[in-house]
Amino acid sequence: MNKFRFTIVAAFAVVFTMAVSAQDVTTAAQGQTTQTKITGEDLLGIKSGADPKKALPSYAGKTRKKGRPVVFTIGDSTMKNGKDDGSNKQWGWGHFFGDYFDSTKVSVENHALGGRSSRTFISEGLWDKVLAAVQPGDYVLIQFGHNDAGPYNTGRARASLPGNGDKDTTVIMEATGKPAVVNSFGWYMRKYARDVKAKKAIPILLSHIPRNMFTTKDSVAVIRNNQGLGKWTKEAAAMEKVLYLDANKIIADKLDKMGKDSIQALYWGDHTHTSKSGAVLNARTIAEGIRDLKGCKLKKALKKKF
Predict the structure, then answer these.
(1) Whose CA is closest to 190, among 228, 230, 242?
(2) What domains are there in the chain, each with its CATH number?
(3) Residue range 195-213: average pLDDT?
(4) How far apart are CA 209 and CA 286, in angstroms?
(5) Per-residue pLDDT, 58
(6) Three-state DSSP class for 172?
(7) For the chain, percent helix, then strand, then coil, each to nearest 5?
(8) How confident is the model at residue 221 (pLDDT cuts 50, 70, 90)?
(9) In this predicted structure, what is the pLDDT of residue 211?
């Protein structure tokens, strides 16, 4: 029986790998040009501050001031990297996002955590801590996808099923020997949206930021994630009738105009994690996206000039 169950899990993993966008493939033939050593979140581990027992966001909502909404951000290391102090020369865009808002109108709190997927941000209790602090009129920006591939029950065991379906699967976790239910990526994204709406707050789903990868070896066009995970994020937003910001596209559009040499300075250590300049560019671009997002009242809290 166990052998049959693991066969099914393996089959799902194959399907997921085929379904995700080309952005999630890391072969040199598809345009990986960075020459820096790939470290990855696996090598950051607890040293990066990614231990959930130490990093659970106990301060959620602490910046709230009477009459002012809080803007919460949740996601992975592309939003909040390591200890959020640049000690590993990598930064997440969430660290700088608040710089573009008028602090007399809102406060901004970054509750992302490196290495987390749409699934493990929930299963490790991170989401419960944030959600408990959400109040009517708040905003929650939700960006996942970089860590939603891979094994379901071995190693870091953080993958979600492909698509937006409601069907789930049960796996036996290698670390505990206990069963765990795995849902689709879209299901988790829809859950975040539903949970926020239930608090009478406003969720905004974001496609995950682009990697330092190009459509071909000689191309200057950055790979988009408008298929696979990016597509499922957009679909989840439509299904829940909530705001969607294609952060991947608007950032990649900027990168295309910069050229490969300039892009290299925006990443550090690998093709995914940004340097300080890359994180600032992403934060600014996402703030611009909020300003241009139809039906998003959060734009009123942005600084007039930036």
Answers:
(1) 242
(2) 2-22+64-301 (3.40.50.1110)
(3) 95
(4) 10
(5) 58
(6) strand
(7) 40, 15, 50
(8) confident
(9) 87
